[in-house]
Structure formats: structure tokens, C-alpha cells
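[Meeting: bench + compute handoff]

Bench side (C.D.) handed over the final construct sequence. Compute side (W.E.) agreed to return the predicted structure before the next meeting so the bench team could plan truncations. Sequence as handed over:
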Amino acid sequence: MMQIISQQGRRFDFDVIVLGSGIAGLTYILELSASHPALRIALITKATVHDSNSYYAQGGIAAAYHPADSIAAHVADTLAAGDELCNLEAVEAIVAQGAESIDYLRMQGVPFDQDQEQQLLCGQEGGHSTRRIYHCGDKTGAVIVACLIKKLMTLNNVSIFEKHVGVNLITEKNAEHIEVIGAYIFSEESALIHSFFANVVVLATGGSGRVYRYTSNPDMATGDGLAMAYRAGAVVSGLEFYQFHPTVLYHPTVNNFLISEALRGEGAYLRLPGSLERFMVHYAPEAMELATRDIVARAIFSEIEKGDDGYVYLDIRHQKKSYLKKRFPVIYQTLLNLGLDLSQDLIPVVPAAHYQCGGVVSDPCGRTNLKRLYVIGEVACIGLHGANRLASNSLLEGLVMGRKAAVASVQDAQTPVVLHHALPDWDSTCVEDLRRASQIHVHWRGLRGEMTSYAGIIRTEAGLRDQLQLILTRKEMVEEYYWKHAISRDLIELRNIILVAELIVCAALQRHESRGGHFREDYPGKESA
């Protein structure tokens, strides 16, 4: 059953549009509003303002805050994790703000865990040479986001659009540059596509973990900002380096519950089913379970491939129940609800897509090659993570970039766009196809399974080339469908994730070496940086 419809919506005008309500987007808005409260800001979020990758961050935020720690040590650990591909200037720009960032969050009301003397507690995670992970139990991201949103709700210059999804950026092109002047935004409630125009567009849209079958990311992580920016002409880099978190719960009905790296920081072991051998001795005999994520994830993947169980075990039974319930309350209770007692049971885990180390190329202030377009947080690639992100550097990056971009974008936000053409509204006479849902589901399921098999933790040229052909075939079908039929959130996301998959595979094909989160079985060695 089909009928002709129009999806053209309203026109909105703002000084700044921010897509994404994680730590980067929220911090940007708070900082910009504090210094320039008259600027009109629109916050666009796919679900509710509380839903973001940041919200689900369990472990904490890395910072050289304790007097015994140092910025130099944090920089060194970041460079080591990044496997020689970090941008030193970017690393120093972010890491140097660690202590100030902790103080900033405390001023926003974030209640970091403290000891009896009211000194901040800090945890240990893989790749760190000392304890420097500041946390709020095992729900640090949720607590930080809640505090920032509480501040956000006091602002009068911010309009919040929940259940609105970015479709495409609106650009002006001339001989000198491409200028981003707004974005087309789909409203789930009305099914209309509105035209949002602004002096500055900020993408804080997070990563694209849903491109893989197993991921720690929430459903909204479909690479929307990356895809929108790339289609508009933004430069992207480092997309072959997708970080897989070593320990996501293996369960028949729950497939994206993260078991924080902080458990290994507090002494958890990785064991094989059956023999219960601590197998990390064969992969990282010195660091063991606290090796960097790329090493641990590949070790787990390799052991799973050798056996028939499909998982390995995480074991922290040697810690007291009272300690585990206090230190990891969310993990403890979630597992208990599933019939697993963290203090008594072995926890089955598998690696899963976790963090996009590459992204849209920008400087630490979020500036891109497109005028008036800023990217901050996981969607950005500033060179902080290199080939592999150091644990808990992500919240720090989002916070620092949000604050820096707020300063850097002020002039653009206050300078009206000079138009050379009429502002284009969405032109959307199309056909509504009620059969679409099942077709999109089939494409989603197929793509995610293929990416996991051919472009996941271990890759080969033959597999990547086969995957690219599968992607291009899907892309042609979806693009043809997209331009003729009514647009919905699931179709927008499918189109975006197919493009992201293409970019990941093409980048992986071009890198003839193994480094960080990119492992080529046919090129296991490392070229010179």
C-alpha cells in the first residue's frame, strides 16, 4: 500500500545548533551560555536529553589530579596506548586539562567517590601506569550527565528538541570554501523534516558502534554526525581504528551490557572455560589483564576462536561481596537480576565494538575544514587516541573539547551567514511504503553480522574486499529507496551506518599493517609510524 505524501516541515533560525546531548554537547552549551547568554541555541537529541554514549560510561574520567601523578605520565600512557599514531600536540592539549576538568565537574555538583578523609578515590584501568580514574561508583557517566543537565535546565536561551534526528547538513558552496549553514532535522513525532538554520553547527553525536553485531553502545550510536559531515565534504581519518571493549556480558537476551574495565583494575582475572586458566599470560605476561584494550580484546577473541564456548570468564570472586556491592553497584545489581552473583559466579564475557578512535578531522577546539562546522567528542578525530584509545580518556576529551569549542566558535556564532542563494527548505514529495520496516531490519541484521565477521577484531584483505562489495550493493539499494520513499529514523540510521561501514572498510584496506585497534592477519607486522 503506497500513497504520495510531503514531509516538508517548519523553518527554525538559531545562532547555534548542537546535535548530541553527551558530555561534549552539554559542556559546550553550558560554557557558551555562561559567556554569551544572549545567543540562541538549539539542542537536538535523538531520544531524550538524558540518552547518550556518555550516560553509559561506567569506569570514570582519567586525569592527572593526584599530586603523585603527573601530566607527563598521563601523556606517556596515552601515547603508548595509541601505538605511535597519536598527535602529541593534541594529547598534551587534552591531558593538560585533566586536573582542571575534575575541579570543573565538582563545581557542577558531580559527587566523585571519596574516602573517609574526603580525599578523591581513583581507580586503575588497563594501559595506565598509576591509579588516575576518578569515578562515581560504576555510573560515572550517568552522574556527570545528570549534573550537567540540571544546569542546562536553568538556561533560558536553549531550546531542546527531543526525538529529532539529523538528516543532512545544509551548505553554501563558493570558490573558496564550503560553509555549513544549518541542518535538516527529522521529527519522529510529526514525521516531518524541519530546516534548522544557524551561524554555527556543532556535531557532538558520538560514535557508531551499532555498525557491529556486538557493541556496548546504545541504539542511537549509528554514526549520524560522521555520515552527515562526510557527505557535506568534511575530511575524515583513522576510521580503521575501531576499539573493541574486551568485556561485554555474554547473555542470550542482554547483548550490550558493559562490564567495566575497572573490575580488572580492581583485580579481576580473565579465565578460560573448563580449565579456568588465566590465559593473558600468553599475550601480555607483564601487564596481564591490565594490558591495553586492543591486546586484551584480541586475546579474548583468539581464545574464543580456539574453543567451542563462545565466551571467556571474568573472575573477581576473590574480592569481598561488601566491597563489590559498594564499588560496582550497577554492575552487581544488573548481574544479580540475571541470576549471576559477582562475588560468587564466573561472569561470561565477549569483546564488543566500543569506541570510534577516528572520526571527522578537527583541531582540539573542534574546528573542521568546513567553515562554521565544529565537531567535538567521539565524532571528532584530533589525534588524541591514535590507533587505540587509552581507557577513560573519552570523557576527558569530550569535556575539554566542549569547553574549548565554546570559546573558539563565539565569533562565528555572533557573525550572521552571508547567503549567496535562497535558503533551501526540504523538498520531500515522496511515496509512503508501509512494507519498509521488515526490509530495513533485514539490511541492518545482515550488515552488522558481515562487519563483525569481515571487519571486526581480526581482518584480511580478502575478507575486507568481499565486505566492501556487499556494502556497495546494499548502499545502492538503500540510496535508491531513500530518495523515493518517506524518510523515517530507521531509514536515516541505516543509510548512515552503511556509509560508516564503507568508510571503515576502505580505511582498513588502505592500512597494510597491524597497529592498535586495526589488526590485519595478512599484515601482522607494524610499519614505521
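W.E. noted at the follow-up: The CA atoms of residues 71 and 190 lie 49 Å apart. C.D. will use this when planning the next construct.
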